[in-house]
Amino acid sequence: MDCPIPILYQDPRILVCLKPPGVVSTDQPGGLPDQLRAQLGGGPELCLRTVHRLDQRVGGVMVLARSRMAARLLSQQVEEHTFYKEYLAVLWGAPGEEEGLLRDWLGYDKRTRRAYTAPASGPAVREAVLRYRVLAREGGYALAAVVLETGRTHQIRAQFAARGFPLAGDQKYGAPPLEAPGIGLWSRCLAFTHPQSGERLTFSALPLAAAPWDRFSFLKGISQGKEHPFDFPFSL
Question: Which ranges carry the Pseudouridine synthase RsuA/RluA-like domain (predicted)?
Fold first, then answer.
């Protein structure tokens, strides 16, 4: 492993880390759990269960369960919408409104591996809802905080692209490529209840200083302590 995966927190029940862009989040050869086992020296018997996913080209904060019971309890929070997930997104183009709610019917084409919006509900589509707030605008791009109220495949990517401002670098949804392994989407913050102690935990991290994030002086100011941090744009 060229570069260790940053671990933000671990105990006997959970492990919180920063998934690098380009690494799959599911348990398969070379996936995030597999790399963490190698890094921790635990071997294939080390229990690391994925309870939520990030697309391969998306980086940021993830939590993995270290027992079957922890996985069940965390997955239950995801299903009951008490598992808070906040993202940063770099949009190619910019919404006219500073904040808003996007609501669509979303399907997923397994052949093309793309999500699509539909005019109405149906057997192959599900409702997709997110909230966003624009934090900065620079050079034709917008930096937005995004909170999902539903969790659909490629939801953030497809909903913004359907309105004419796909994520930076997301060629699948119509944006020009980036000279970077990821796209303009980062899992910035997770908040959930610890599966054993019952304590409410919050973990957050800013994206790496690389494209497309390095174009925003707003993020540079926060990392250098010159700007007021934006925890949390939305209420927990």
Answer: 14-162
> Is 55 noted as a catalytic residue in this protein?
yes
In the chain, which ranges are E strands?
A: 7-10, 14-19, 49-50, 59-65, 84-92, 99-109, 114-118, 125-138, 141-148, 185-193, 200-204
Catalytic residue among 2, 11, 27, 55: 55
The total number of structural domains in the chain stands at 1
Structural domain boundaries enclosing 139: 7-223
> Which residues lie below 8 Å from residue 74, measured CB to CB, with a gap of 6+?
14, 51, 52, 63, 65, 83, 192, 195
Tell me whether residue 51 is in a domain. yes
More confident: 74 or 140:
74
Are 177 and 169 in contact by the 8 Å Cβ rule? The answer is: yes
- Do 205 and 188 touch, CB atoms closer than 8 A? yes
Domain membership of residue 1 (yes or no) is no
CATH number, domain of 88, equals: 3.30.2350.10
Cα distance between residue 218 and residue 216, in whole Å = 5
* Domain membership flag for residue 40: yes
Judge if pTM exceeds 0.85. yes
